[in-house]
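Dear colleague,

As promised, here are the two records you asked about, laid out in our usual form so they can be pasted straight into your sheet.

NAME FIELD: protein one
SEQUENCE, THEN STRUCTURE:
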Amino acid sequence: MKEQRSVELLAPARNLETGIEAIRHGADAVYIGASRFGARAAAGNSVEDISALVRFAHTYWARVFVTVNTILEDAELKETEKLIWELYGAGVDAILVQDMAVLRMNLPPIALHASTQMDVRTVEKVRFLAGCGFSRVVLARELSLDQIREIHDACPDVELECFVHGALCVSYSGQCYASQCCFGRSANRGECAQFCRLPFDLVDSEGKVAVRQKHLLSLKDMNRMDYLEQMMDAGVVSMKIEGRLKETGYVKNVVAAYSTRLNEIIRGRDDLRRASTGVCTYSFAPDVRKSFNRQFTGYFIDGKRHDDHNIDTPKAVGMPMGQVLRHGPGWMDVSSVEPFHNGDGICFSGIDGTLRGYRVNRVDGRRIFLHSSQEELRSGRPVVQAGTTVFRNSDTEFDRMLAKESADRKIHVSVSISEIRDGYVLEMTDSDGVSVIVETHTEKQDARTPQDANIRNQLGKLGNTCFKATLLDVRLQGERFIPSSLLADMRRQAVAELENKRIQDVVPLEVGKRTQSVQYPKRELSYLGNVMNHEARAFYLEHGVERVGWAYEKQPVHGAPVMFCRHCVRYALGWCPKHQKAQTQYREPFFLRSSDGREFQLSFDCRNCQMTVLEP
């Protein structure tokens, strides 16, 4: 058999509850924010809650990573160092980092992961980060399989983590300053105001409006379910789901769907294994289309440009259900294979081109009756036409299932009981080979009736624990009467000891080794280096950078690009001179005009297929 590589499904957790459910539904690891300094300011958690999550996760040999991935002010450095020590004391497996000031702190021996906020796209940067002590890097979402494979081949000892599902930032992560520019809320400090989800006019150099009030920077959501095996073969060890602000139901469904798919792949391979243990069963059929989504895109993973944007809405569109067959005031017949339910949310593109959303009031076969506005009912004017696709963005029955206990994750164990000279011994061994022995010293009593069934029944009662008995072995010298209370005590003690032993057997992640002589790939850092404090500045100077500029948040650079995008507005509109050879009546340069009248010039680097958005 080939040596097996461990692969990991990494899930988001907004809080302790979501983290526990992510593990129950099949995650091999979760990432969660602490009370401060995580890139989602609205998703903070206490060290006590994180410690509880660690204990739960480690029972399954799953991991907990904590985001400490904002850029830091000088006054925050001591507090950050203290927090990292507290997280280490809580048993956290690794921290995600953006600010290089962290590497000048007095750190505990904890693994460091380079956050996606560090904008990691090249072999040179991965080598540098590995030399600085990072054992894992989170690659930019925009990289293709070939680019990922190139990095892995050049840096085989560095773990690569890549996003596979969830919301997409239109700008390279860590390189977006639009929120700070417009609203004083820094994406690099966890306070993104989602500038990219706003509607804009597209205006040409002569003031002509080419597109009016469309969400030109709002991307569809990532879905790489069909690329998981190719990503693993390219060198990815951790498949990451986005969504630390998402509700628990979303995490349950998406984690279960990806875990199921990973298991299907691994069953056909002898060189891959899951990073954690335990068998999951679900009370529902996972389907990522039924959770919040803006429709899906693979987003450059195969090196090609796809239809990655949805200019109609930044909101959830959901699952396509079918086409409108007939319609009337407040009702429509839909060619749906799946049934609708009372209370479902639906949306479709109206006759006027705007996205319309409704609740289903009542269902009668294929006919659905809508909660329509009184104005629409009075006017009698149709809001939709036959052939229009209808989407369901809220499935009440599915959501109701997810609101309940919807998964169970069990570690299989074998349980045996046998006699010793002055009592009995219970041995419990799990599927990973971890074993405990519990002895009880008691006077033996012969039984007049068969006891095997009762003994097996008592020892197999593991319902509320993380274990499931798959083998029960009773090896007694004749029929023995053992009180049920004694059997239950032995079983409970064995369960507690096995849980503790499993947690103790979790091997700490390897801490990366620092190379003092490692040099940063560039000699100069502009505001794009996100240097917010003097310790980070000193770090780069020590590693060969000769000029270090301050972060945009500390010293704005007027007229500079505030977004760097692989997504291209020209391509999305069919006007790309490189790929589509298209002509347009509108003259460059183009500008995005926001609702407050500010205009952001667009610049296009066709050689590198990159678009930048300039500060107004």
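NAME FIELD: protein two
SEQUENCE, THEN STRUCTURE:
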Amino acid sequence: MSNRYEAAEQYGKALKSGQKSSREAVLRGRYPYPQVLDDILDDSMLAGRVELGVLEIPTEQIVGTKTKGRRLAFADNFMPLMEPDSEFAVKWMELCAAHLGDEGIRDPIRCYEYMGHFYVQEGNKRVSVLKSYDAPTVPGYVIRLVPAWSDDPAIRAYYEFMESYQMTKLYRLRFTRPGSFAKLQAALGHEPDHVWTDEERQKFISGFTYFQAAFKKLGGDALPVTAADALLVWLKVYPFETAKTTTAPELAKSLSAVWADVKVLSQSDPIAVKTDEEGEEKGEGLLGRLVKAMFPARLNVAFINERSPEESDWARAHDLGRLYLEAVMGDQVTVQSFDQAVPGENAEELMEQAIENGAQLLIATTPPLIAPCRKIAARYPSVKILNCSAAMPYTGVRTYYSRIYEGKFVTGAIAGAMSRSGKIGYVASSPIFGVPASINAFALGAQLTNPRARIKLVWSCVEEDPFAALREAGVELISNRDIPTPDRVQEPWGLCRLREDGSLEPLASPYWHWGCVYEKVVRSILSGGWDALSAADGGRAVNYWWGMRSRAVDVLLSQDLPDGVRQLADILRRGVAEGTIDPFRQYIRSQDGEVQSDGTRYFSPEEILHMDWLCGSVDGALPAFEEILPMARNIVRLQGVHRDSIPPEKEGTLL
């Protein structure tokens, strides 16, 4: 008797929930009843059917019915809408009483699954009763309807899910982006094709259930991403074991620390690429002075380097940038410097030490330091962090790099003007963001002054002696590695002439002016521009990608250049800096014969940064990941133009 009384009470609660959900759906212009699969699907959209047998179905993924049937009896959340004295309500309460009894609801429902959602054919009231008690799963006999293949990202992600399901047997583990399951397998210490054991599955479910609850608590259901998507973001900062061992409030707090990165996943353009410093500094009017008064008059800045300036030209270039910052802003900055910061070992410790010493801005000068930067950002949200890399969608860490392709365009024009045969060599570093753009800009510059110019491309990440192939090809000039600082003219950096004795004579080289970047960033923080930019970009990640206009890049010219070539180079430098010359605003045909530009349009910064094609005048190709030397693979994983297609590296076993 008590079961029936409780069942009647439960129906009353469920009815109120259904009525409320139905009203809200109408107000928001949504369909107020369960979806009907027959109304949204026909056989032409299917590739086949697969009987999966009886499974434990996640109740939150049950969204509708197979046929119209009694859909009007349920709200869109599957709660009842019929009055308590109706025949429907009586049967609902009888099922509820059975659920509360010793036997419970044991008979599985029958349903169809399409694109990860379930549509009930038999057992609507059973679903409604169990959902009213927040049951996590419902037993059901499932027939999967396989969608016809297409390049639609949702279809691709679903096909990947079908493959992953064979290994996990988990319907709750759904991603919205292709390639995500492979990343999870690697993060958990598994090979890509590892089939989970029952023990591994239970350990994962244990942690994921708590994580999913934290995801929902923070409003995850309102985002167009899944809890599994959020888990991948969270795992980059916290170990999986934390999801099982920490308290619910602590878990929610840890997820909230990376929540901005989770929200960015839903944006089609998660990274705001800033190509100059315009808008970074506040004006000096009354409002500007008032805003400026809210920010510190002095900033504590810490530089974090993987290697020391004595052993690395890259570190030395950034260290000169540090010295420049101190020279021009010594009365407004306190500067610290830490070398030998090794990711995965002591990098986080050194960053913590810098913060203990008062650092308000951390500048990590290499891409591999992005992982410790993200962990520190989660712990210290008030500390501003920069990482020298490109195209990183992490809101807590801003990235910066230089548009070195602008300088390559100028040196390409010099090469074309000075080449008699038109045979020009190019030594590229790695196929990372911005490098194909530099190759193309160099080739376009060469053709500007020499329409017969051909660029022989080799890769230092593939060939241990890339110059050997260029010498054999009979090139006259070679574009070598760029000069890291303008004081290294004695070495064969940048564009060089190949002498008869095999030595290289430097002619011109693009170079980075990191000090100028650091000065502008620090001034923006002191003036409030940094925070204003965060507000203006709607929570997106920020990537500073400055070039000649911002003086972050320039070209060093040899004194031995002919006067006419020097004058041409100066004209091009000024034109690029002033914006009157755009290296890519010309007719461009790529190697495959496709017209990339008809000469009338401008490439966006994102298009240039993510270029993965080469101009038709380039002889060579982007190397596959398998061709790259082991020492260069880490940077390609982090910054490669095709990094999303590179199999992730397996980490330590977690389950």
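A couple of things worth noting about protein two: The first helix runs from residue 2 to 27. The radius of gyration is 30 Å.

Best,
R.
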